[in-house]
Specification:
Radius of gyration: 17 Å
Helix content: 25-40%
CATH class: Alpha Beta
Number of helices: 9
Distance between the termini: 9 Å
Order of helices and strands: HEHEHEHEHEEHEHEHEH
Shape: globular
Bound molecules: pyridoxal-5'-phosphate
Largest sheet: 9 strands, parallel
Oligomer: single chain
CATH topology: TIM Barrel
Strand content: 15-25%
CATH superfamily: Alanine racemase
Number of domains: 1
CATH architecture: Alpha-Beta Barrel
Number of strands: 9
């Protein structure tokens, strides 16, 4: 069912490379995250066989069900890219390698406590999700509160704050996302954060032009989720 993943991954990589070169960046500065929400564990394995190593999932519970079927893949890195409730922090830390959606000090502290228990001796990589448009979903910290949250996350000894993540409002025109991506980059620069998770199937090239270090791609790799 996922035979075409190899070819699609190659096409996406070529587009990532072209976008990076246009922006005077090195393609290796951009990590491709295959978004596998809703898809079965076989999709993760097929993407792994096609050479992909980074995977994005939106729901803790859904990924917990798939994890036994993918836990044996060496070098696979699983990113939580969906909203996380504080009461699921312990489970998220056990299941995921990176949490991209920290959006409150309370959640950061829960993750910190869980990381001390379940990832002893290493600092759990995290990103802060920033909400840049008022009409967008409830998740993400407003830009005005980002400074305080950066400070709170940096005060957590078991977390390593790597960067910022955002999701602009959906639009048919990828250029509509550009101001949001630019804003996220400016915020990351202001706080000295090296990583930027931004860009999805329809706007990842614009995101790369604006400095994305992680693009999160589902549909363009696996086809429409409804058909899965
Ligand atoms: C679903 C999802 C993606 C991938 O979206 P596509 O349009 O399928 O590429 C990326 N990021 C987040 C947070 C998502 O929920």
């Amino acid at each position: 069912m996922w035979e075409s993943i190899g070819q699609r991954a190659a096409e996406i990589r070529a587009r990532i490379e072209a976008a990076a070169r246009r922006a005077g960046r090195e393609p290796q500065q951009v990590t491709l995250i295959a978004v596998t929400k809703v898809l079965p564990a076989e999709a993760i394995r097929a993407a792994y066989d096609a050479g992909l190593r980074h995977f994005g999932e939106n729901y803790v519970q859904e990924f917990e069900r798939k994890l036994p079927a993918v836990a044996d893949l060496p070098g696979a890195c699983f990113h939580l890219i969906g909203h996380l409730q504080s009461n699921k922090a312990r489970r998220a830390v056990q299941a995921f390698d990176v949490i991209q959606t920290v959006d409150s000090g309370r959640l950061a502290r829960r993750l910190d406590e869980a990381a001390a228990v379940f990832k002893p001796g290493l600092r759990l990589p995290v990103m802060i999700e920033v909400k840049l448009s008022p009409e967008e979903t409830k998740s993400g910290v407003p830009a005005a509160e980002l400074g305080a949250l950066v400070e709170a996350v940096r005060a957590c000894p078991h977390l390593e704050l790597r960067g910022l993540m955002t999701m602009p409002p959906f639009s048919e025109d990828p250029e509509d996302s550009r101001p949001y991506f630019r804003k996220l980059r400016e915020l990351a620069e202001a706080f000295g954060l090296p990583e930027l998770s931004m860009g999805m199937s329809q706007d990842f090239e614009v995101a790369i032009e604006e400095g994305a270090t992680h693009v999160r791609i589902g549909t363009a790799l696996f086809g429409p989720r409804e058909a899965a």
